[in-house]
Amino acid sequence: MERIEKFIDNLPSMDLMRSEKMTLVQLIIPVESAHRAISYLGELGLLQFRDLNSEKSPFQRTFVNQVKRCGEMSRKLRFFKDQISKAGLLSSVHPVVEPDLELEELEIQLAEHEHELIEMNANSEKLRQTYNELLEFKLVLQKACGFLLPSSNLAGAEERELSENVFSNDDYVETSSLLEQEMRPSDQSGLRFMSGIICKSKALRFERMLFRATRGNMLVNQAPADEEIMDPLTGEMVEKTVFVVHFSGEQARTKILKICEAFGAKCYPVPDDISKQRQITREVSSHLSDLETTLDTGIRHRNKALTSIGYHLTQWMSMVRREKAVYDTLNMLNFDVTKKCLVGEGWCPIFAKAQMQEALQRATFDSNSQVGIIFHVMDAVESPPTYFRTNHFTNAYQEIVDAYGVARYQEANPAVYTVITFPFLFAVMFGDWGHGICLLLGALVLIARESRLSTQKLGSFMEMLFGGRYVLLLMSLFSIYCGLIYNEFFSVPFHIFGGSAYKCRDATCSDAQTAGLIKFRDPYPFGVDPKWRGSRSELPFLNSLKMKMSILLGVTQMNLGIILSYFNARFFRSSLDIRYQFVPQMIFLNSLFGYLSLLIIIKWCTGSQADLYHVMIYMFLSPTNDLGDNELFWGQRALQIVLLLLALVAVPWMLFPKPFILKKLHSERFQGRTYGLLGTSEFDLDLEPDSARQHHEEFNFSEVFVHQMIHSIEFVLGAVSNTASYLRLWALSLAHSELSTVFYEKVLLLAWGYDSFIIRLIGLAVFAFATAFILLMMETLSAFLHALRLHWVEFQNKFYHGDGYKFKPFSFALITDEDD
């Protein structure tokens, strides 16, 4: 046993097996070099600061004003970004790199640009509003005149209006504020009219309301406007309708005005005199022409200003984000008693200590500080954060494990084994080398475009797919491997590795697939013999094969989980967990389901017809009875009795000793007998990681006993349910194979039986659609989720606590746009 332990101790350590060793460090930074030191540490990205001002609100912290200034600058930059987007301009892909700006200089620049843009927007909005009013007035004049002029004079008036494109100043009669003049009231008792314009969508309701308000004592004429008008609020083009309402009486006029106001209709005065109408039309057209020129000039000037901002926008946003992150981090530091130094604490990996000290020395030198930054290691009582160094390949697998729970500090990492077991169990359910090739092509496309896609903003689904590109790669490769074992290419078998071992009973028979086959040569060298496809015994044979294979894979993976619990207990020096948890769990699981796996292998090797259901059931009901034809080897009955007794003994072995030993150790420690254990303040945490205690004085025997009882019952019941859960490998593999067969035989072959090219094309399209969306998307997702469940529940619950917290260093590389 000692030799085995020495061999294990001498094994080289795996980077991903245990999280990085962490240390708690303290920094004492002079005020004059604090900003530069934090900036350099942010560029390094290997220190997680502790908040030493957690009792203070954000408004009570030292650098709250600087954070507010950065927040205000972020608001201005978002305003610029929105304005550039609304103008249809694009930020520069290759921004201009300016020399380093000070925060105060950037703040002044941003304030000037914002003031300029707000002023331009206000002027543009006023001009646009005036332009819209003049355009509406022009449209009202054009349409209302047609309703007011007699039909005999209308054609002549329009000809005169169209012919007067150019006019001299002598013809211009000065009329002050004709746009604002109200229509002169005619005789109070006579017929009057009111003209205006309204949105086309409101015209019908507007007319109905007028009719009800005046009790039908009015006449409405409507005509669609020839031009769409821009809504100043939304910037969209809106269709309008010109209306003329004829009415009588002052009371009706008041009602109509109120209704117009309620519906957002604008009323414009149209004079009775034709010459005055022409004069106002010329005046409005002239104003419109001038305003168009002014608006175009303003838009060009505004776009030029936005373009110049766009060249620097990316750099400015990055700079403000970094500055805000620096001041947020400085707010986590404390002033010392002299108010001349800032004190900070944080976690860092041990391998990064030299890099951090070098960065702090550079910060002292660059800030011309007379006092250096003090960096020293502290003792920690709390558990450190968990940090795994991953790459592009292993990161996705680590994320799968972390989604269940972040590993406890220095706990065995399931991701090491998940890299292989996860895609393999997926492939057991998905096995088809035709479908595997399709997945492989998709994975290779994502990997080939990795550099380009990594810089783009992807949708949620595409981002998830791109993040798991290497998971998809291994899933596809294992699917091809399992598909070759199942001998399925879109459910069609091929003679890839030689001829079949079976032939027809009779050389003349034509129904060999149904009448039965005979074996005439050595077995097919790799995978399932293609002759099984379509035979009478195909389904029973494949069911038996895949069901037994699922049990073997499940028992193997559960044993791996229990073995990893041994390495955890050994690493944390918890001999109690090895003796009273690992050993009885291994005995219980393998006495029952390890024995079942052994029977499966023996049955495969010997070709026995023994009924394993009968063997396992009567192992519990009648262990002493003769096995008869179900006996697979000599001494099987005696072995079954021994294994059953071991399984029964293993249950109290798991349940009782550990709580009582913990109670004894606790009482001895406080009576002064175990002096060697008094020196460590983390005895409970390190030696008994599963105990319910955190401190000596909080030891509660009943709580520890209940916890151990729950854990034992969970394992005993879970050994049965988890083994049964692995049968999903068989069920999903069978479902995938049968679905593929149905689509191939009932869609593609059925369509190919017709001579019509159109029917064949339709059949091929339906088969391709079903393969892509059902087999390659839905079945892939289903197998992925089932493989995920097998790892999270059946595998990881044997050894993985997952109650740690992730290492989140202060790093500029981790700052995203959402942090604004």
TrEMBL record:
Chain's role: Essential component of the vacuolar proton pump (V-ATPase), a multimeric enzyme that catalyzes the translocation of protons across the membranes. Required for assembly and activity of the V-ATPase.
InterPro entries the record matches: V-ATPase_116kDa_su, V-type_ATPase_116kDa_su_euka
Broad class of the protein's primary localization: membrane
Subcellular location per the Swiss-Prot or TrEMBL entry: Membrane
Protein name, as recorded: V-type proton ATPase subunit a
Source organism of this protein record: Hibiscus sabdariffa
TM region positions: 424-447, 468-486, 549-567, 587-604, 638-656, 757-778
Coiled coil stretches, renumbered: 101-130
Signal peptide: none
